[in-house]
Amino acid sequence: MSDTRTVTAADGELLLYTGTAGRAARTGHKLTIRMNQWTAETTFDDDGHPTSVQLTVEVDSLEVLKGEGGLAPWTGAEAGVARGNALKSLDAKKFPDITYRSSAVVRDGDAYAVEGELTVHGVTRQHPLTVTADGDVFSCETVVTQTDFKVKPFSLMMGTVKVADDVHLTITATVPAS
């Protein structure tokens, strides 16, 4: 017998970290972004090990927490501009959700190899993950390449400063008991 548990942003944190690229990359800010609305439906076997996961992230819940580096100091106004640019790049009105659907979960000690499909910007691709467990706290780190999902990284000054193509993602969540 299995049970399904719901995990939301109230149970953890999903963060994105962007870098900069281009000839003038050092002039841009590296961003830390939090996704404030997401839900994961996770099914567990009788021994309490996950057997599947389905994650849905609301793109419009994106919040720019901070910007680091760059030539000019980071201001609160820049956070709003960066958020708008990110929503435009992701075409959030046309593609309001990012989803991940597992197809297989294999346990290896306190870690799980997860095979599944990630859908961003209307494009679905295979995206394997490694999820670690520490009691009821599960965490994962991965890299998503924007252009793999037909997302054009934001750029300015004719491309001399742009968001790096690879975006680092971390998610940590406490799964409620059944």
UniProtKB/TrEMBL annotation:
GO terms for molecular function: methyltransferase activity. GO terms for biological process: methylation. It comes from the Bacteria. Pfam families: YceI (PF04264). Transmembrane segments: none annotated. Keywords: Methyltransferase, Transferase. Residues 4-176 form the Lipid/polyisoprenoid-binding YceI-like domain. InterPro entries: Lipid/polyisoprenoid-bd_YceI, TTHA0802/YceI-like_sf. Belongs to the UPF0312 family. This is S-adenosyl-L-methionine-dependent methyltransferase.
